[in-house]
Design brief:
The structure is a single chain. This protein is α+β, with helices and mostly antiparallel strands. It has six helices and five strands; from the N terminus they run H-H-H-H-E-E-H-E-H-E-E. Helix 5 (103-110) crosses helix 6 (133-147). The longest helix is centred in the N-terminal third of the chain and has 20 residues, at 26-45.
């Protein structure tokens, strides 16, 4: 922590908060975020993500890939019958607090692969991983749409500053 404070030229956390509120160190904070992102990408280079073996691996990937973004992003992972990763795509990008999701576009992309299951994920830049009513409604709409095409929604994961919320683990799916 002392090294970070030194990097930000602050004596304590209170000073960091004060300077952030007055926009004095926002550039340094952005540089730090970018550095963390680059380090995370390097860490992932040697990992094999052609198969989602565990939820932990997926969460690690998502935290590094989208956990520190300033705007919402919505990613879709396309899986075959054995949970082998067929493809991954960021389908929607939004603002700091919302992104518009179109189930039709998810289906269009899924039909490009022999998709059996889908994992969807989006980030909450605020860090609050509590699903909104809209998050729950969209999840159910996607689930029903996929069901009619003999595909399943495996999970919906919300990422927020090192934390995550799994709809499957929390009984929403």
């Amino acid at each position: 922590m002392e090294k970070i404070l030194k990097f930000l030229k602050c004596k304590d956390v209170d000073e960091v908060v004060y300077k952030m509120k007055s926009y004095e160190i926002n550039e340094e904070i952005e540089e730090l975020k970018n550095l963390i992102y680059i380090i995370g990408k390097e860490k992932l280079k040697n990992k094999d993500f052609t198969r989602i073996r565990t939820m932990r691996e997926l969460i690690e990937f998502l935290n590094i890939n989208m956990g520190i973004k300033n705007n919402e992003e919505f990613k879709v992972f396309f899986l075959d019958c054995d949970n082998k990763l067929l493809g991954e795509k960021t389908l929607f990008q939004g603002t700091v607090d919302r992104s518009t999701i179109y189930p039709r576009l998810i289906v269009e992309e899924a039909l490009k692969y022999p998709t059996k299951g889908i994992v969807i994920s989006h980030n909450h830049p605020s860090g609050d991983i509590t699903p909104s009513i809209k998050d729950k409604e969209v999840t159910q709409a996607i689930k029903e749409t996929l069901k009619n095409l003999n595909m399943s929604l495996v999970d919906h994961v919300i990422i927020g500053q090192g934390n995550h919320h799994s709809f499957l683990d929390n009984g929403i799916l």
